[in-house]
Design goal:
Layout (H helix, E strand, L loop, with lengths): L1 H27 L1 H15 L29 H5 L7
Length: 85
């Protein structure tokens, strides 16, 4: 039995080390993992496992773009000096 334990110890240590390194990386990229799992699920089910268009969308909607600044009135441009004239 101790022979089995001595062979399992390096495997267990390596497994724990891999989990300790990869877990934060996978957690930071969870959105990519979720997208990949959804794609795999739809491929395995023949494309029948779709979701409603807005399901799972937790992101805030994009804010309205800023309006264009108003152009300068013509009289404001008349008082500016021009280069080279």
């Amino acid at each position: 039995m101790s022979r089995l334990r001595s062979r399992l110890a390096p495997f267990i240590a390596g497994y724990v080390l891999v989990l300790a390194v990869l877990s934060p990386v996978v957690a930071g990229r969870a959105h990519l993992l979720a997208r990949a799992l959804e794609a795999a699920r739809s491929l395995l089910s023949g494309g029948r496992a779709g979701r409603p268009p807005d399901a799972g969308s937790h992101a805030d909607p994009a804010p309205d773009p800023a309006p264009d600044p108003a152009p300068d009135p013509p009289e404001a441009n008349a008082s500016r000096p021009t280069a080279g004239i």
